[in-house]
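Something for you to look into today, if you have time. Just paste the record in under my message, thanks.
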Amino acid sequence: MNTNLDIIIIGGGLAGLCNAIHLSKFGKKVLLIEKNSYPKHKVCGEYISNEVLPYLKYLDVNPFEFGAVKIDEFQLSTTKNKVIAAKLPLGGFGISRYTLDLELYKKAKENGVTILQDTVVDVIFKDDFFTVETKENNQFQAKIAIGSFGKRSVLDVKMNRDFIQQKSPYLGVKIHVKGNFQQNLVALHNFKGGYCGVSKVENNAINLCYITSFSAFKKYKNIPDFQEQVVFKNKFLKEIFKNSKPNWEQPLSISQISFATKKPVENHILMSGDAAGMIHPLCGNGMSMAIQSAQMASKLILNYLNGTVKDRKTLEKQYIRQWNKKFSLRLKAGHFIAMLFRKDKIASFLLQVLKKLPFLLPKIIKQTHGKPMKI
């Protein structure tokens, strides 16, 4: 058993990698365990609010060096093909998870983080230490464990987390295509039972990522049939899909997506990124939240390891309090906005109001976005 570790991070997505880079900057011995190899495409909207740029700079990561696209305009359409546009209050950028995760992985390795490709099957907390067991029969021990294993994991089931008991009724589909789309625009187009985000990422690719209820999808034979019969009822989506060429043979898909409330700490493990909570993709800021949660967890962990935070109970209480202060209102706003747009009549009425009072849309966007991160 390897016991010469300070922190074990379970999952190597945005939150896990940012945690690893941050903690390793301070000389901590970090092991990150990730089941997949890098790079890998993921079902994701791939738009990130500029609020994270100061923190990425602190981590010595500049997304624009890897081809990130600057985005400052937003467009929204309803199921009735009514459209409204606005300037994004803070702006953002588009970059694929394939590229961003890879560059964060390289930075973590450069910082001396040990990265193991394996699957964690159990985490045992005893005598103030975590013992982490993997599929390949490895065992590791550390004072701190961070869970950043994404939307749904075998560990969520193993820990019997509350959200696992509830229905996870959503399906996500994503593909990169080549075609014409405004460079500085992120668009959100609604269709019956779902919505699709559209934005440019590096290498002039367009990311098309939509989410729908599984009950709406299962009436159709396959993804192309569903798109033809449902998604393309939105004329903007039909035009984009029909006038572009796919970069991949098949789209990616993920099922059993849940937006149920999660606990930021579970079995003494600090949850980070999607493992702690997910905002509706309708609000387009999940990647930013994952990165911000990493900063929050890393700062508190460093304070705990140097004695500024006196004990584990205080560490956990502070993390829960900070997480809720930062994100709980965003998540509630995301749920509420998504609920409104699922109702066609309400969505149409809202659009009419927003057209008459255009200053309201940036204010609504601000409810699901924050200010530039403080270092």
